[in-house]
Structure formats: structure tokens, C-alpha cells
């Protein structure tokens, strides 16, 4: 499902959750639900939404100031050049084609993208990688890993040369951590990928 309504008009997560809240809490009229962050449609995992405008503002600020921590795991083709590293690229999005590319620093409309990765295991030409995002650019993980020769398994958009049609993108948001917007307590949430290939070829850590 897309995170929010798009041109496909397919059912989206934001409106599905609004409908659920309306029924579950017997709320009259429109239901407020704030979109704090997004996942690409082929990506699974844990997300947070805000049930009040105050919570939405504070959580969005946490995203902007990098106090909302997101951890992903991905299965990629090949093996990264180093067991752990920080990747820095400048990314530019073509809004006409909805694709992102790595460009030279300072190009007009380009934005810096930063992530840390750690190799968790490799076998049969595939690797399991843990990723921590420092920025939230569109398609960031997919494009940055492809730039170092580690195309994501199942990525038809940025890896059609090595992936087969019908394969699902192997990228999962496994952990989310942030301060509760009103209680001020640190909250931690986890979600593990499904037990099917290529995930089943590796041991996914409990983050």
C-alpha cells in the first residue's frame, strides 16, 4: 500500500488508519491523523503516525532535527567494499519520472544524503546490510547502495539488470525510536521482515 493517496488511487495506509480509528473509537466527523514520515510503496516495516496536531508538530520536528532514529535492513546483490561505512552523496530527483540519481555536489535542486551501513552477513552473491539514516531523501537507501555497486534485491527501478520481474524489494524498516511528544519517554518499536526469501537466507538481528 502507498503511505498516502497517490495517482494510482489504490487504498493507502493513511486513509485506512483514519477509517480504523473512526470505527474503533466511534469518532464522529473527520478523523485527524498526521503523516510524520513515509516509506516507499515497495518497502515494509514500522511507521509512526500522529493522532493530534501537537504530536504531529513535535514528531515532525524530531525528524527534522534527527532525533527520530530509523533503522533498516536490506538484502543487496554483491558485497559492500567495506564492512561498515558512512555514505555521503548528493541526490537529485526527476519529478517527471519519479527517479533519483547521484549528482555532483552543489547541483541545482540536489540534496545531500547521508547514511551509515554495516554488513551483517553474505552468502550466494547476496549480503544482508543494516542501515541507519541521517537524512530522509526520496529513494535514498536504494540509490546510495546502488551507487556503491550493491543494488537492492528486487529493486526493479534501480536494478532491473540484476533483478527479475515479480521479485519484491528487500528493504525493511526494522526499528523506530523517538521521544513521546507529550510523555517525554523514549519509545522503541520493532518490525521484522517476513520469513521468506531472500530474508530467510539470513538471521535478522533483534534491533
UniProtKB/TrEMBL annotation:
<dbReference type="InterPro" id="IPR050188">
    <property type="entry name" value="RluA_PseudoU_synthase"/>
</dbReference>
<feature type="domain" description="Pseudouridine synthase RsuA/RluA-like">
    <location>
        <begin position="13"/>
        <end position="147"/>
    </location>
</feature>
<dbReference type="Pfam" id="PF00849">
    <property type="entry name" value="PseudoU_synth_2"/>
</dbReference>
<dbReference type="InterPro" id="IPR006145">
    <property type="entry name" value="PsdUridine_synth_RsuA/RluA"/>
</dbReference>
<dbReference type="InterPro" id="IPR020103">
    <property type="entry name" value="PsdUridine_synth_cat_dom_sf"/>
</dbReference>
<protein>
    <recommendedName>
        <fullName>RNA pseudouridylate synthase</fullName>
    </recommendedName>
</protein>
Amino acid at each position: 500500500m502507498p503511505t498516502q493517496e497517490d495517482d494510482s488511487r489504490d487504498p493507502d495506509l493513511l486513509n485506512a488508519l483514519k477509517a480504523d480509528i473512526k470505527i474503533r473509537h466511534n469518532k464522529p466527523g473527520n478523523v485527524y491523523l498526521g503523516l510524520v514520515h513515509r516509506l516507499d510503496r515497495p518497502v515494509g516495516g514500522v511507521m509512526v503516525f500522529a493522532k493530534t496536531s501537537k504530536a504531529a508538530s513535535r514528531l515532525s520536528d524530531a525528524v527534522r532535527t534527527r532525533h527520530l532514529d530509523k533503522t533498516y535492513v536490506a538484502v543487496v546483490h554483491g558485497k559492500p567494499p567495506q564492512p561498515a561505512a558512512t555514505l555521503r552523496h548528493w541526490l537529485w530527483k526527476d519529478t517527471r519520472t519519479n527517479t533519483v540519481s547521484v549528482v555532483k555536489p552543489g547541483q541545482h535542486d540536489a540534496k545531500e544524503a547521508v547514511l551509515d551501513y554495516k554488513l551483517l552477513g553474505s552468502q550466494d552473491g547476496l549480503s544482508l546490510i543494516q542501515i541507519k539514516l541521517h537524512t530522509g531523501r526520496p529513494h535514498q537507501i536504494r540509490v546510495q547502495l546502488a551507487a556503491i555497486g550493491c543494488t537492492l534485491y528486487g529493486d526493479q527501478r534501480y536494478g532491473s539488470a540484476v533483478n527479475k520481474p515479480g521479485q519484491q524489494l528487500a528493504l525493511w524498516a526494522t526499528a523506530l525510536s523517538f521521544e513521546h511528544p507529550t510523555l517525554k519517554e523514549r519509545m522503541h518499536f520493532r518490525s521484522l521482515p517476513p520469513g521468506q526469501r531472500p530474508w530467510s537466507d539470513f538471521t535478522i538481528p533483534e534491533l
